[in-house]
């Protein structure tokens, strides 16, 4: 170990914690701040459950269909606790998406998939 390393390791704990605090404050300052910028629309989170999604092709078909709904920016499908049922999450700038609109968006694929639940999170 060279002399410079010994000096770095022998710093008092208080000095090290100050550096860590300063680094943490810089990280926080670089993160996006809450609230909306001028012209930005709020994003609403819709959650639900869907059955019939058994593979990545099924998932892609549902994501593409629901992605065409008004204001939708992201559709996420994940495994749920119930066998054969997946959790569904949709992010949209539209405050009024409904289960009926989601079923309609599936079109003819609505025969393959069943949206069991779909509602906006408070």
Molecular structure report:
This protein has a four-stranded antiparallel beta sheet with strand order 2-3-1-4, covered by helices on one side. The radius of gyration is 24 Å and the shape is elongated. The protein is α+β, with helices and mostly antiparallel strands. A hairpin with a 5-residue loop joins strand 2 (72-79) and strand 3. It has helices at residues 3-9, 13-30, 56-67, 99-106; strands at 44-51, 72-79, 85-92, 114-120. The protein folds into two domains: 1-31; 44-120, Alpha-Beta Plaits, CATH 3.30.70.100.
* CATH architecture annotation name of the largest domain: 2-Layer Sandwich
- Helix/strand-derived class? alpha+beta
Number of helices: 4
Low-confidence stretches: none
Shape annotation:
elongated
Q: Strand count, sense and closure of the main sheet?
A: 4 strands, antiparallel
Helix content: 25-40%
Mean pLDDT: 84
Q: Compute the separation of the termini in Å.
A: 58 Å
Number of domains: 2
Q: How are helices and strands ordered from N to C?
A: HHEHEEHE
- Report the sheet-strand fraction: 25-35%
- How do the strands of the widest beta sheet line up side by side? 2-3-1-4
What is CATH's topology name of the largest domain? Alpha-Beta Plaits
Alpha carbon gyration radius? 24 Å
């Amino acid at each position: 170990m060279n002399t410079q390393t010994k000096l770095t390791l022998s710093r008092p704990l208080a000095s090290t914690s100050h550096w860590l605090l300063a680094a943490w404050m810089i990280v926080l300052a670089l993160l996006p701040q809450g609230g909306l910028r001028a012209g930005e629309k709020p994003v609403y989170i819709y959650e639900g459950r869907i059955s019939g999604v058994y593979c990545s092709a099924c998932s892609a078909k549902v994501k593409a269909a629901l992605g065409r709904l008004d204001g939708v920016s992201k559709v996420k499908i994940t495994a749920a606790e119930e066998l054969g049922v997946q959790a569904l999450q949709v992010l949209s700038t539209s405050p009024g998406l409904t289960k009926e609109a989601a079923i309609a968006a599936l079109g003819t694929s609505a025969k393959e998939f069943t949206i069991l639940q779909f509602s906006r999170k408070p």
